[in-house]
Amino acid sequence: KCPPTVFSGIQPTGIPHIGNYLGAIKNWVHMQNTHQRVLFCIVDLHSVTLPQNPNALRQSIFDTAACLLACGIDPDKAILFQQSDVPQHSELCWAFTCLTTLPRIQSLPQWKEKSEKYAKDINVGLMTYPILQAADILLYKGTEVPVGEDQIPHVELAQDLARIFNYRFGEFFPKASAVIPKSARIKSLRTPTSKMSKSEIDVKSRIDLTDSPEVIRGKIKKAVTDFTPEIFYDPDNRPGISNLMDIHAAFTGLSSDEITEQNKLKNTVGYKSEVADIVTQYLTPIREKVLRLREQPEYVQQILDRGAERAGDIAQENWMQIRKLMGF
Ligand code: ADP
Ligand code: NA
């Protein structure tokens, strides 16, 4: 009874990188054409779970919107908006917080990782943000959630909360399913055993969508590899070179066998130069579009304002029904 609805989000914690693009945004651009109701959200409330500089956050919200538009998100096909413009995200989050047990939230892999990393300095938001993510999706009765595979446990929490709510208050929320891209998860260029992320301090660990050809070339040249000069795919024993091959494969559609075959006469230095060419060629039109959008900030703001209105209409209607079911 709930129509197919696509929902996904990205944190405005900097400029989106090729991991975000290949793991999420590329799929978003595809799904805006295959689905009627599609929402993409710049999740600023999530980005304040770590200390933020207000001016940097403002800039990141703009840059994230500009990058999404430059990658091909079409505001006539998808509702593109800023999370904090729609207050019902926080309201539904509170209702869900009261339906979530402490052990359930403590069992999430990201909590285990973060609570070890930040120890006693950790804030409560870093524990409960997956509940906000569930609210983000279910506020729009989202059924399809195109995300990287690191997000699967969080989509499962949204499924649990929908089930718990429906059992206690009556059938309302649909089942949200993660839609995971076939391409491999992109790893950090500096520590190729962990994922490429905006939150890694070393900027040489990631390729931003706005990096110039020279910067891209420099970062790939410095990418951590090993002392074996040959090019072959072995993610367990050769994570660095295999990550470059994953990036190559994702941007070209070639398989790792085809890439190995094509590059068997090259050494690591020559192969890195080849990957830099491919990435540069793909990103150049995206980068140019972002630079143009930076010249027209009012245009980008208009798109976000219209997105907030359209998202807000759906959110308000659903939230009124949720309140009625819960008795307030
Ligand atoms: P980040 O971890 O860089 O801050 P976000 O949390 O904003 O990224 O995630 C936005 C989307 O990008 C999510 O769907 C996430 O799964 C995806 N994503 C993030 N990093 C990667 C990566 N290295 N490889 C593939 N997908 C990724
Ligand atoms: Na993140």
UniProtKB/TrEMBL annotation:
It comes from Lingula anatina (Brachiopod). Catalyzes the attachment of tryptophan to tRNA(Trp) in a two-step reaction: tryptophan is first activated by ATP to form Trp-AMP and then transferred to the acceptor end of tRNA(Trp). The keyword Nucleotide-binding applies. GO terms for biological process: mitochondrial tryptophanyl-tRNA aminoacylation. Keywords: Aminoacyl-tRNA synthetase, ATP-binding, Ligase, Nucleotide-binding, Protein biosynthesis. Its main location: mitochondrion. The keyword Transport does not apply. One of its GO terms (molecular function) is ATP binding. This is Tryptophan--tRNA ligase, mitochondrial. Belongs to the class-I aminoacyl-tRNA synthetase family. Its EC number is 6.1.1.2. GO terms for cellular component: mitochondrial matrix. It catalyses: tRNA(Trp) + L-tryptophan + ATP = L-tryptophyl-tRNA(Trp) + AMP + diphosphate + H(+). It is found in: Mitochondrion matrix.
